[in-house]
Amino acid sequence: MAMHPEQESPSAGADGAGEGTLPVFRSLALDSIPAPDFADVIVLPVPAGQRECPNEPQIWAETLFSVSSMPEWVTALMGLRQAVVGLIGVSRATPAVFAVSEVRGEEALISADDRHLDFRCGVAYDARARLLRVTTTVRLKGWRGRLYFVPVRLLHPLVVRAMMARAIRHLTLGTSKLTRN
What we know:
Blueprint: H1 28-32, E1 38-45, H2 57-64, H3 72-84, E2 100-104, E3 107-113, E4 117-126, E5 131-140, H4 142-173
């Protein structure tokens, strides 16, 4: 197994368990919020497409969060979010909330802090394994954050998986106009 330079393999225990190198999982999202109230990791394979897909994680992150590459139903949910969050005192998000704040190695980090929660999303593309990974961590703040996150917690995996599948099609098929689903 190839290790990233910044990753160190844990040693085998005295009892022999875990002999050899153990897998190590790292993400900028988990580094930034090491004890999240919510975390998930979704990994999808990236099939070979009509064109070579980019290796740059920033391009993957920007495509993933681009309104033009989101499924229509996800765009509708984002619009609904914007319409109702004011009812519980949560501010509306601007498009800049999904701007890439840092790129390190094969991962781009999106960071957003607000009164109700802190959000991190690490978007990584492993070109050799052809895997796209999205790691999300959230720190909730107060009752507004907990209330806001009730529906988000349920929908988040479905939304992220759909956004990832659309970004994969967009970047591997090279389509500028995508069929909405």
